[in-house]
Design a protein that fits this description.
Layout (H helix, E strand, L loop, with lengths): L1 E8 L3 H12 L4 E4 L28 H13 L4 E4 L3 E6 L3 E6 L2 E12 L3 E3 L12 E2 L1 H11 L6 E6 L2 H12 L3 E7 L3 H6 L1 H4 L3 H16 L4 E3 L1 E7 L6 E6 L11 E4 L2 E5 L2 E3 L2 H5 L4 E4 L4 E4 L12 E3 L9 H19 L4 H28 L15 E3 L4 E2 H9 L5 H8 L12 H12 L3 H4 L13 H5 L1 H10 L1
Parallel strand pairs: 1-2, 1-6, 2-3, 6-19, 8-15, 9-10, 9-15, 10-11
Antiparallel strand pairs: 4-5, 5-6, 7-16, 12-13, 13-14, 17-18, 20-21
Helix pairs in contact: 1-2, 1-9, 3-4, 4-7, 9-10
The protein binds flavin-adenine dinucleotide.
Flavin-adenine dinucleotide binds next to helix 1, strand 4, strand 7, helix 3 and helix 4.
Length: 473
């Protein structure tokens, strides 16, 4: 078993900022990520040895490089564990990790979970066809593998991330034929006064709109993709105008494409957080179930803090600020930072975090997951991709009494595949809520158990692991 002072899971903007702040405060930091390099999603680095397209830089790249360089300059002082997946949490603060060398249990005095988010896709007919992927998936192909996802690309869903990906793929030589945005232009205009609270981020948004205009990529506000068709792989996408709830309302047209990148925002990645048994709450606008955090980002579980999108989706700048707050607070708890130094450093950060709220809430409102998207799926549309459960099978299960995840799992096998419900539960819980006339919060969350990511059977059969995990559970 490894004993450590501060373990940070996730090396995105939140995890990097936490590691920098805690290391500068004099703490011994262990930083873990399943990726091969630091950066997380937004500042993902391509493997140096890989040949392929050169990846264009965007407005965030310079900032990301500075953050990465700063962390690199501290690498001698930080224990960096790349390609290491944390697949379980056991009380108190025992992390089960799979490294290249095999499994390990790391016990930490303080833990910061900076695990980021998943993309959300509302199911629609044809969403499982080859050629349909998320915008983040297309972005990772370009940033991580230096290839384009296809030849004729349509980007759809909701959120400013669509513009980022459209501009990136275009700059890399991709043929982006359009962007389909569910929010209506007037939704954005309504919230313009709140958006003006952060002129820097607003200008960044404007930059992407200008990039699209310059490239003559049409942006269809108030539209939604209703189906994807093709023999064996994607050939055609149908789009329609939609109402304020995101429900298709006519004016259908088709676009011939071989790639559709579709995503309706992000869902916080909270499996490890849930396993700490800290208090969780449902916040629709922040992406769903999130830990209840105090101002210093502490959860109700002792020594566990959550920073970045995993504590509520709010973008890279907020993630970075939160990471610094969590890092300093962990150092203070370890006794590495005096009360005076802690207060001095934390006050400007918490002030900036408070200021970022107005902008963040406006974006959340403009690009929220709309209830009408649930009606895109037809009775035979697959909802649970792992177990291939259709909407009709799922609704029959609900009818049969499956109004909570445990019962529905038993009746239908929904959520029992490799993703353990990460992909389908946000949709299914909304569907149950709608049918039962309840709120999504009342339907409850998935119960998470280790392993949260695939591990070798030999890890589980290892005698010392069995002894340690049963002792702590
Ligand atoms: C696919 C995707 C692409 C995105 N691209 C952009 C973009 O281009 N521009 C933009 O503004 N926003 C983007 N976002 C949103 C953006 O990533 C966030 O708002 C912000 O970067 C969040 O930072 P973070 O540090 O909280 O999380 P992330 O940057 O997501 O970092 C989380 C890190 O935790 C690691 N991790 C998670 N769980 C484990 C585990 N169990 N074991 C080990 N490691 C783990 C992940 O590998 C990841 O590196 C993207 C989000 C996603 C999901």
């Amino acid at each position: 078993m490894m004993q450590r002072d501060l373990v940070i899971v996730g090396a995105g903007p939140a995890g990097m900022a936490a590691a920098i702040a805690a290391c500068r405060a004099g703490s011994k930091v262990t930083l873990i990520d399943e990726n091969h390099a630091i950066g997380g999603q937004i500042y993902r680095q391509s493997p140096a040895a890989l040949s392929g397209l050169s990846v264009p830089t965007d407005t965030n790249a310079a900032h990301g490089k500075r953050l990465i360089d700063e962390l690199e300059s501290l690498k001698e002082q930080i224990e960096w564990l790349p390609q290491t997946s944390v697949w379980g949490y056991f009380p108190d603060r025992k992390l089960a990790v799979r490294m290249r060398e095999g499994w390990q249990i790391i016990t930490a005095q303080q833990v910061i979970l900076a695990t980021g988010a998943y993309e959300y896709v509302a199911p629609f007919p044809g969403w499982t066809l080859p050629g349909v992927m998320t915008p983040g998936g297309a972005q990772s192909m370009l940033k991580g593998m230096k290839v384009l996802p296809g030849n004729r690309i349509l980007i759809a869903g909701s959120g400013p991330f669509l513009l980022v990906v459209a501009a990136l793929l275009h700059a890399a030589g991709g043929n982006v034929v359009g962007v389909v945005e569910t929010a209506r232009r007037r939704d954005a205009l309504t919230h313009l006064p709140a958006l003006l609270s952060n002129p820097k981020l607003l200008l960044q948004g404007r930059y992407y709109f200008k990039q699209l205009r310059k490239a003559r990529i049409p942006l269809h506000w108030g539209h939604v993709v209703t189906r994807a068709d093709g023999a064996g792989s994607l050939e055609r996408v149908t789009i329609s105008a939609c109402d304020s709830a995101g429900k298709p309302c006519g004016n259908f047209s088709t676009v011939d494409v071989d790639t559709l990148c579709v995503g309706y925002g992000f869902i916080p990645r909270t499996e490890l957080t849930q396993m700490t048994r800290c208090e969780m709450e449902y916040q629709e606008l922040l992406g769903g179930w999130i830990p209840r955090l105090d101002q210093r980002l502490s959860t109700s579980a002792s020594g566990i803090r959550v920073a970045g999108d995993g504590g509520g989706v709010a973008g890279a700048m907020v993630a970075e600020l939160e990471g610094a707050v969590a890092g300093l607070t962990a150092s203070h708890a370890l006794g590495d930072l005096t009360d005076k130094a802690y207060k001095q450093q934390i006050t400007p950060l918490t002030r900036r975090l408070r200021k970022s709220q107005t902008f963040r809430m406006a974006l959340d409102r403009i690009y929220q997951i709309r209830p009408g998207l649930l009606d895109l799926a037809c009775p035979d549309t697959t909802i649970c991709r792992c177990e291939e459960i259709s909407r009709k099978e799922m609704e029959d299960g609900i009818q049969f009494g499956g109004t909570n995840i445990s019962t529905l799992k038993v009746i239908t096998r929904i959520g029992m595949g490799p993703c353990q419900g990460k992909m389908c539960w946000p949709t299914v819980s909304r569907m149950i809520a709608k049918k039962e006339g309840k709120s999504v919060a009342e339907i409850g969350n998935l119960r998470v158990r280790p392993p949260i990511s695939p591990i070798n059977m030999s890890d589980l059969l290892n005698e010392s692991f069995i002894a340690e995990s049963s002792e702590s559970s």
